[in-house]
Each structure stands twice: as C-alpha cells, then as structure tokens.
Amino acid sequence: MTEIESPFDNMNDRSREVFRRVVQSYLESGDPVGSRTLTREMSEKVSAATIRNVMQDLEHLGLLDSPHISAGRVPTQIGLRMFVDGLLEVRDLDAVDRDHLQNTMSSNSDGVPALMDRVGGALSGLTQGASLVLTPKTEAPIKHIEFVSLGPDRALVVLVFADGQVENRVFTPPMGQTPSSMREAANFLNAVAEGRTVSELQRVVSGEISKRRQEIDTLAKDMVESGLALWENEGTASERLIVRGRSNLINEGGDPAELDRIKTLFDDLERKRDIAEFLELTDEGEGVRIFIGSENKLFSLSGSSLVVSPYMNADRKIIGAVGVIGPTRLNYGRIVPIVDYTAQLIGKLMADRG
C-alpha cells in the first residue's frame, strides 16, 4: 500500500519549529504572527528575513495563510489539523480542573438527565466553549425509524422510541446507498419495529436473511448441480448466483419463471443485508475525534472546532459522548485532557449504576 506523503516530509527542523511556534502563538492570542515576534522565540539565532522566507514556504505548502498584505501569518485548517495530529503536546490535567470535575459528579443520587446537565455546565465553565453531551443510547422499544441522507458518505438515523424519546445518530452508509434505498429500508423496519428494540430488530433482520438464503438454496440446488449455475463468493455478503446463459436454461428444459423467482429472492436478500448493515451502523459509536472547521459537516461549523470523547459502560461499549465546541484556536493541549477525563468519570458513574 502506498503511503500518503505528509507536508512534514518536506520540512527541515527550522521549518517545523517556525510552523509550531506560529500555531502555538495563534492558539494563545488569536492574532497573526509576524517574523519579528518569532526571532525572539526561536531556539537558534536567525534573522527576520530568514523567518519570512520560511513562512512563505509554509504558505506554499498550504499550512499558513496571510490574512492581510504585510501582516503576519495564521495557520490554515490543514495546518491546524497537521499540528493537532503530529505536534500537539497534551498537558496533564490541571489539579484544579480535576477537582472541579470530580466535585461536579460527586453526587451519584441524581438521575441521568440531571447528571448530564451538570456535566455540560462544568465543561462550558472550564473551557469557555459550548458543551456537547450525548446521553446514553436508549434500548427502549422503537416506535418509528427514519434514515436521512446527509451526503455521499454521511447519513442520519432518527429513532423515535415508545416512551417519547427521540435520538439522532450519524453514520457512514454502505457504498452505493441512495436516499430511495434508505427510505425502503426504513419502510421495512417500521413494518416490524413496533415493540422491538434496535437489538431485537437486528435479530429479526438476521432471521429474514437466513430465510431468504434457504429459499434460494432450495430453488437453485438443481441448477447448480446440473452446471447451469454456480455460486460466486458463496457464504459472504458479496455472494452472487451466476447463471450460464438464460438460453441454456430454456434449452435444458428449465423454467424461466423459476429463474425470475430466484432473482426476486436474491434482490430481497441483498436489501435485507443492506438493512442489517444500517442497523449495525446505527448501533455503533464513534471514537475520540477532533473536528476542525468544515471537517465537522454535521453542524456546518465553519471556523469552529469540536473536541469529543466517547464514554463506555462496564462492558466497554460506547454508550454516549461528551465534547466541547469552540473557535478553531481552542487551547487543545488543555481541553483534550479535560474532555477525556470527563468521559472517564461519566463512564465510571454509568458502570457503577449498572
């Protein structure tokens, strides 16, 4: 597999230091950083002209931008992403922040909604950003389910539960799915959803898949044994029944209607497999992520960042997430451990509650 070349591969130690100091200074002040400022901070003595040349090279790489003529530089979204992924130094959690979070969640007698309200308030207060708290996924019976396409690689599932709660979950749909195929999947699930949880729906769909596969096996058995058809990738999700020419089937005295029946069953089997994958993706959570600027397509927060961390139950299953939304010049080194520790505390409390 060919590795994608990083801009870091074309940078020497001086370029890396200039880039790192520009980003760190910008994150602290929010102001463009000039070459004269950096001459006083560099580990080696270099002229302002030399630093300007380096900054110009970084601009050509798409890592820095110049908001005004003759002004200093600021990191681009690509530059911020590269800094977060490769140069960010995450600090240890401050003792004051740790104590504040522990005190916020010290009462284990409140219900989950009250706990999440306190968590959101604590995160906003500590980070000066907007908090994001996704509550534990509900395993209540489903009243209605809907899939909404947000783009080629993004979809939203809306779950309305029998107790009146509504959950929205984002997932990456299988390749080739269209809004119409998602509507078809939702129609099938709504026909069998009443009184069932997501997990129970998964078992229903698995049963439908097995049933269709058995029907196809029965109908196609004679065709396969006579050599008129063969299975490709048998037993996998991508299996296909290949018929060696419809005319051969007719010449051998086969029934074309039987072939049409097999094709109908096979189409239904593939739809059920798509639905099973939708349900599996619906039930999954996402890992720890930092979204910068337009990377966060769900909220369309251009110019904003989202730092989010999942929390887990006693079985190490992701059941929710907490995070902070703020400007792209967030103090990532401080906020990342705050969000991470908050997720750990919530996970422990949820595990203790069973």
TrEMBL record:
Keywords: Repressor, Stress response, Transcription, Transcription regulation. The keyword Metal-binding does not apply. The keyword Repressor applies. Residues 115-336 form the Heat-inducible transcription repressor HrcA C-terminal domain. GO terms for biological process: negative regulation of DNA-templated transcription. GO terms for molecular function: DNA binding. SUPFAM superfamilies: GAF domain-like, Winged helix' DNA-binding domain. Pfam families: HrcA. InterPro entries: GAF-like_dom_sf, HrcA, HrcA_C, WH-like_DNA-bd_sf, WH_DNA-bd_sf, WHTH_transcript_rep_HrcA_IDD. Belongs to the HrcA family. Negative regulator of class I heat shock genes (grpE-dnaK-dnaJ and groELS operons). Prevents heat-shock induction of these operons. This is Heat-inducible transcription repressor HrcA. The gene is hrcA.
